[in-house]
């Protein structure tokens, strides 16, 4: 029940100790403010990292080759390991049950693309139809590569949004002819990519077409796959890691590469990397919570101290209350209510300032590592419960001390 007299007493006590109450409340507000800012930036880090993984499928396995750095089986270092169509076929056949999407890639950097007098340099990628899902590309218009395009070596192209903007100037590119190093291709699709302009500055064409049109033979630059996901994330990570290791061993054995030559054959596993990064984010978030909670505790200790001082100053008054019949529970309720009130008001000020600052700077913080730091609703509710618990904790010891005061001792107190 709302007790107006009790609230009047609380405000009277606060009014008598304005500076002391302000400084104590400031420590609580600072603790909540720091916690909110830390959790907001923790959320921003998580968003930034997730955006990096969204550029490609999270469960992607990529196979790339370079030059050998170690001699092996009588072969000197310095050999370039060239992947070919047969490598793609062999891996597909061997691991078909574990793989979801598959593509071999023949790419050319800085390919000159021309349309109606407009020219730009973009990356050309000869690929399989599954490239759409491996690259996490979303069709904006038209279609992606098809198996018929592959079988018939059609001269068709799917361009990124940035190429559409650069070359077509608002015109619909579907059905138009572009020239890539003098070879004509018909645009059949336009795609967007979570990676933005860098990922949208590519032209996808059928792999066999690119190899024939640009003298690629049967060479490919890399292989890319996605692993079939399990409901158990750790199980999926383990499968992805095992496949990556097995593929690496297969390529090294085929081309006589030293088992410890990390440069010649590189198999990247985004699922395993994602787990490492997300685990690191969880650690960072826990550290931020730890720092924030202990900062709040410092403020709570201040509130508890001020309540002890108030109890000491009001010892005689409390004694009189008990002498005329006040129950210990009413004394405890008075002290707890005052402690919770001071803590809650200061804490909510810190909470609102922290959320307000994050809202203000959120649009300005947008890079590869931190994106739009904000505090979600669940975190805000958790912070509110922390405030209430902190206030109760701050007032508990002083309230117990007040409840134990004996009227006869209180009346003798100077």
Structure description:
Helices cover 56% and strands 19% of the residues. A six-stranded mixed β-barrel has the order 3-4-9-6-8-7. Strands 2-10 form a two-stranded antiparallel ribbon. The chain has 414 residues and is α+β, with helices and mostly antiparallel strands. It has helices at 4-16, 18-54, 85-94, 131-134, 147-151, 161-168, 197-200, 207-213, 233-254, 270-313, 315-323, 328-361, 377-403, 407-412, and strands spanning 60-65, 83-84, 99-115, 118-127, 138-142, 156-160, 177-180, 183-192, 202-206, 219-220, 222-227, 265-269. Helix 2 (18-54) packs across helix 12 (328-361). The chain crosses the membrane at residues 21-41, 287-311, 331-357, 377-397. It is a multi-pass membrane protein.
Order of helices and strands: HHEEHEEHEHEHEEHEHEEHEHHHHH
**C-alpha Rg (nearest Å):** 33 Å
The portion of residues assigned to helices is 55-70%
Given as residue ranges, the uncertain stretches (5+ residues, pLDDT < 50) are none
Look at the helices and sheets and give the structural class: alpha+beta
Number of helices: 14
How is the biggest beta sheet arranged? 6 strands, mixed, barrel
> How would you write the strand order of the largest sheet?
3-4-9-6-8-7
Average pLDDT across residues?
82
Portion of residues in beta strands equals 15-25%
Number of E-type strands = 12
Give the total of domains. Answer: 2
Separation, N- and C-terminal Cα atoms: 34 Å
Identify the overall geometry: elongated
